[in-house]
Design a protein that fits this description.
Elements (H helix, E strand, L loop, with lengths): L1 H40 L1 E3 L7 E2 L13 E3 L5 E4 L9 E4 L5 E3 L10 E4 L1 E17 L4 E4 L5 E6 L7 E2 L4 E6 L1 H20 L5 H20 L4 H10 L5 E5 L4 E6 L6 E2 L6 E4 L3 E9 L11 E5 L8 E12 L5 E9 L10 E17 L4 E2 L4 E6 L4 E6 L1 E6 L2 E6 L6 E5 L1 H21 L1
Length: 432
């Protein structure tokens, strides 16, 4: 009985072993067969997303483009751009060079133009505000206390000329000083023939001191000479404007008591004004003192003014990242008003450089590329170093030369194809 039981156990174990062996063999056979089929069918890659691969033809699940078969052992890779466009492109593996049938270039919308070597002038557009020239502002004070009697400059905005009367003032101190001057003048006349030279000299010094005191109180020489001639004390002293300009502030009113610290008028000479504009910090290399600028007006038919940069402020606004530039402008006809907004164009010559249309350059952030056409249907990506943008053109410091034919339209399509070729080349290298 025991022998029969042992025989049954051996038969059952042998059966399980055979089943397990057949299952493993079948699994390995499937994997082996799948690997063989994949190697025979090849690898398919998306032209727009080279990281996506498949072992069978079809469409990319990301963008819907037809997958491209990567040929093994070929020097060149050939694929189609889309389902409807039967336009083959050939690319030299590892170089990014692309070949297109010249007859078919128009189907892809590829346009080219030649790079040019020329004198480049950088223009910076800025918004500015008109301000009075601070060196031509006058603040009217008196150097003595008193009372305003009559006002001639009686409103803000009035244009006054240099030497024009502003107001009259009565001052007890001024009257007393005039009387002192007349007494010194009378004594000087009586003692000028004295037998004692020291007395005559002393009296002359007193007369000079009295006159000097009147001058320090801004009494004009003409007024002092009139006082000397008439020998009549003037109770009211007329204050005249020291400059020509517009009254921007008035605090002088009849009957008002005034003191030396009171500002009675502010007068601004607007024959020359300041225009303060703001430029971005990346434009600072193209701004220098002495540079000219054009002042334009959008809302009025005024002939443009020409100004000159006289000062560059030392600090940048941390919020707007702009720097203030001060222009000095001759304001003929007083057409520039304080606090007026204007548009300014600052122009500077930056030398002779190769320039291309702005749209011809592809800037990825890490590198800057321009596609150059060499021969019929042959396009080569060249890495360049770009300079500033000038009037829809871009300065090129290095990478291409004068006369090179660069792609202006369709360059992003070429760039995607070039990137695909590079990615495929790297994948093939990893396989090796």
């Amino acid at each position: 009985m025991k022998k029969i039981f042992l025989i049954l156990i051996l038969v059952v174990g042998l059966g399980f072993t055979l089943i397990k062996f057949n299952l493993v063999q079948n699994i390995f056979g499937v994997f082996s067969q799948g690997t063989t089929q994949k190697s025979k069918s090849g690898i398919y890659v998306c032209p727009m997303h080279p990281t996506y691969t498949s072992d069978r033809p079809g469409d990319c699940p990301i963008c819907g483009m037809r997958l491209v078969k990567r040929e093994q052992g070929n020097k060149k890779i050939v694929h189609r751009m889309s389902k409807d466009m039967k336009m083959p492109m050939k690319m030299e593996e590892g170089t990014g060079e692309i070949e297109i049938d010249p007859v078919k270039e128009q189907y892809l919308g590829i346009k080219t133009t030649k790079a040019k070597l020329k004198d480049v002038q950088k223009e910076i557009k800025a918004l500015g505000t008109v301000m009075p020239d601070e060196t031509k502002l006058a603040h009217i004070h008196t150097k003595f206390s008193g009372y305003i009697q009559k006002v001639s400059a009686d409103y803000e905005g009035k244009l006054v000329s240099k030497g024009q009367p502003l107001f009259t003032v009565y001052s007890p101190e001024l009257v007393s000083t005039q009387e002192e001057y007349l007494l010194a003048l009378e004594a000087e006349e009586k003692l000028k023939d004295s037998k004692f030279p020291e007395i005559a000299k002393s009296q002359a010094e007193l007369l000079s001191a009295a006159r000097k005191r009147l001058e320090l109180w801004d009494v004009s020489s003409e007024q002092i000479d009139k006082l000397k001639e008439t020998k009549q004390v003037t109770k009211e002293l007329t204050i005249y404007s020291p400059v020509s300009g517009f009254i921007t502030k008035r605090e002088a009113f009849e009957g008002t008591e005034i003191k030396p610290e009171d500002t009675l008028y502010d007068i601004a000479d607007l024959s020359k004004v300041w225009v303060v504009v703001e430029v971005y910090e990346n434009d600072l290399p193209f701004v220098t003192v002495g540079q000219t600028a054009t002042i334009n007006f959008d809302y009025e038919d005024i002939k443009p003014f020409v100004g000159k940069i006289t000062y560059i402020y030392p600090t940048i606004d941390p919020t707007t990242r702009t720097l203030k530039i001060r222009l000095e402008v001759n304001n003929s006809g007083f057409k520039l008003k304080p606090d007026m907004y204007i548009n300014a164009i600052l122009a500077t010559k930056i030398g002779k450089h190769v320039v291309i249309p702005t749209r011809a350059a592809i800037d990825s952030g890490k590198r800057q590329v321009v596609f150059v056409k060499e021969g019929k249907g042959k396009f080569i990506p060249k890495e360049v170093k770009l300079g500033p943008e000038v009037n829809d053109e871009r300065v090129v410091y290095s990478g291409i030369n004068d006369g090179d034919e660069v792609v202006t339209d369709g360059n992003f399509l070429l760039d995607s194809e070039s990137n695909l070729e590079t990615a495929l080349g790297q994948m093939k290298g990893h396989e090796h």
